[in-house]
Each structure stands twice: as structure tokens, then as C-alpha cells.
Automatic annotation (TrEMBL):
Pathway: Isoprenoid biosynthesis; isopentenyl diphosphate biosynthesis via DXP pathway; isopentenyl diphosphate from 1-deoxy-D-xylulose 5-phosphate: step 3/6. Residues 196-266 form the GHMP kinase C-terminal domain. ATP binds at P91, V92, A93, A94, G95, L96, A97, G98, G99, S100, A101. One of its GO terms (molecular function) is 4-(cytidine 5'-diphospho)-2-C-methyl-D-erythritol kinase activity. GO terms for biological process: isopentenyl diphosphate biosynthetic process, methylerythritol 4-phosphate pathway; terpenoid biosynthetic process. It comes from Megasphaera vaginalis. SUPFAM superfamilies: GHMP Kinase, C-terminal domain (SSF55060), Ribosomal protein S5 domain 2-like (SSF54211). Its EC number is 2.7.1.148. Residues 63-141 form the GHMP kinase N-terminal domain. InterPro entries: GHMP_kinase_C_dom, GHMP_kinase_C_sf, GHMP_kinase_N_dom, IspE, Ribosomal_Su5_D2-typ_SF, Ribsml_uS5_D2-typ_fold_subgr. This is 4-diphosphocytidyl-2-C-methyl-D-erythritol kinase. The active site is at K9, D133. It catalyses: 4-CDP-2-C-methyl-D-erythritol + ATP = 4-CDP-2-C-methyl-D-erythritol 2-phosphate + ADP + H(+). The keyword Nucleotide-binding applies.
């Protein structure tokens, strides 16, 4: 059996910079892995099967893990089946790249199980055709992403700072969020370079001051629960930001907040939202902070 870790991600910055003729959107972003993760187990079997601990998730062509298996079929030798099981911890359609993390973990796991000898760069190229966040999830860590997210530059790793995640029980699908962008002509410019500079300096305060996300202006006003959660987090003194297209908010915790019981504090304030406390992580499946 092969076991892989599919770490989630947050976006320390995300600027939508335009829409391409093929319908994809160009972005400028800083990806960051987090320790909250799914676990993917791959076992040799007579035929292919895919199962998931979350029974609401489809285990067919709609699942990126299934597409990862199909993408590597041409590289295998012989008729070798596999059973893939996803132990799901990352919330679905939450802006944390749960599906992409699983997809990348399957690519890495099958590469090991079938002894394909593909490099991480090769796996990332294959992943580009499966989902925009998949290449980053293959590598993990801290990276500056451009294009549709596939043009990646590694940044110096950040310390394992604690991260508060507040996930309302609401699904925001990325294609719907981008549709909101296509209807607007007054998009605010965001400086991603300020975030890149703060990351390179490992400057916590500058990073908090610089984090930003185009989707904040697009998605948050559409949902009363997001407006309220943003207000609660701001009133509590946190520079909370939407991750990806949401609906999850994240807040990097400064040292003075490290020992607070965040689940208890925000479990009451944030109503039905799920509260997670995690850390920044390397995220490539080889090492991460619990």
C-alpha cells in the first residue's frame, strides 16, 4: 500500500488579471500549503476502484482523483488495477483546493506504486490538464503562480505559523465566482508583489498588511453569511481573507494568539461555520506540520 498526503492550500494573494479567449482566467497569486489534509491510500488490486470517506462526493469522472488515474494509464506497464481510497478532511468547494490536492496525491502515489519514474515536473505538466491548482499541489510549499496557476516559481518557505480557518457550510464553485468577474468592469487592482516581498523577508506584519484577493469584492457581497463572518473576524482583530474563490476565510495568527483556544472562541461567534486550526506547511506529501 502507498499512502500520500493531499495538503490543502490558501492564497496569500490572488489577483484576477484577465480572461483568455479559451475561457480560462489569468491570475497572479501566492499559493501556500496548509497542514490540514486528506489522506490517499493506493493498493494494488485486480481492477480500478475509487472510494471516499465522504459519501456525498462522486467517485467517477467528476472526481479529480479519478481523472488522475486515467491520465497515468498510458504510462503504466501491463494491466495493473488499483484501489484508491480518499480519507476526506478538507471541506468541499471551500477554496482550499481539496479536489486538486487529492488529484496531485494520486499522481504522486501512482507514480510510486507503478514505479513510473516520472519527475515532479512531469507530474505537474500532466496535472495542468486536469485542474488549475493541481500543478501547485504536486509541489506544495510556497509558490508564486501566474497564467492559470500553472506557471510556478518557488518562494522561500514560511515558518509553520498557525492559521485559523472559518468555513461556513456553503459551497462556492470557482466557475460561478469567475462568472461574477466577467460581469464587472470596475475590478480593483491588487499588488501581489507586496505579498511576494513580505514572503521573501518572512515578515509577518508586512504580510498581514499586504494579503488581498479579487474574489473578496466579487463573492463576499453575494452571501450574507460571508459578510457577517468577515465582520466578526475583523472585529476580533484578525486580518481575515477569503481563500481562493471561497467561502473559507483564513487568518494568520500572530504569536500572542498562539495559545488561545480558537475553536472555542469562534465556535460560538461564527454560528454553524466549521472552525479549523492548522499551520502553514511544506505540503508536498513528504513533510508537513500537524
Amino acid at each position: 500500500m502507498i499512502e500520500e498526503t493531499g495538503c490543502g492550500k490558501i492564497n496569500l494573494a490572488l489577483a484576477i488579471t484577465g480572461r483568455r479567449p479559451d475561457g480560462y482566467h489569468e491570475i497572479d497569486t501566492v499559493f501556500q500549503s496548509i497542514a490540514l489534509h486528506d489522506t490517499i491510500r493506493l493498493t494494488e488490486a485486480e481492477r480500478f476502484t475509487l472510494t471516499c470517506s465522504d459519501k456525498t462526493l462522486p467517485c467517477n469522472e467528476e472526481n479529480l482523483a479519478y481523472l488522475a488515474y486515467q491520465a497515468l494509464l498510458p504510462y503504466r506497464s501491463g494491466d495493473r488495477g488499483v484501489h484508491i481510497h480518499i480519507e476526506k478532511r478538507l471541506p468541499v468547494a471551500a477554496g482550499l483546493a481539496g479536489g486538486s490536492a487529492d488529484c496531485a496525491a494520486v499522481l504522486r502515489g501512482l507514480n510510486r506504486l507503478w514505479e513510473l519514474g516520472l519527475s515532479s515536473d512531469a507530474l505537474a505538466r500532466i496535472g495542468t490538464g486536469l485542474g488549475a491548482d493541481v500543478p501547485f499541489c504536486v509541489y506544495g510549499g510556497t509558490m508564486h503562480g501566474r497564467g492559470i496557476g500553472e506557471r510556478l516559481e518557488a518562494l522561500p518557505p514560511l515558518p509553520p505559523w498557525q492559521v485559523l480557518l472559518v468555513h461556513p457550510r456553503l459551497e462556492v464553485h470557482t466557475n460561478q465566482a469567475y462568472a461574477l468577474y466577467d460581469k464587472r468592469d470596475d475590478i480593483r487592482e491588487i499588488s501581489v508583489e507586496a505579498v511576494v516581498a513580505a514572503v521573501r523577508q518572512r515578515n509577518f506584519r508586512n504580510l498581514l498588511a499586504a494579503i488581498n484577493n479579487t474574489f473578496e469584492d466579487l463573492v463576499v457581497p453575494q452571501h450574507a453569511v460571508l459578510i457577517e463572518l468577515k465582520r466578526i473576524l475583523k472585529a476580533a482583530g484578525f486580518a481575515a481573507l477569503l481563500s481562493g474563490s471561497g467561502p473559507t476565510f483564513f487568518a494568520l495568527l500572530s504569536p500572542e494568539h498562539q495559545h488561545e483556544n480558537m475553536q472555542e472562541r469562534f465556535g460560538t461567534l461564527c454560528g454553524d461555520a466549521d472552525i479549523f486550526l492548522t499551520t502553514l506547511a511544506k505540503g508536498d506529501g513528504t513533510s508537513y506540520e500537524e
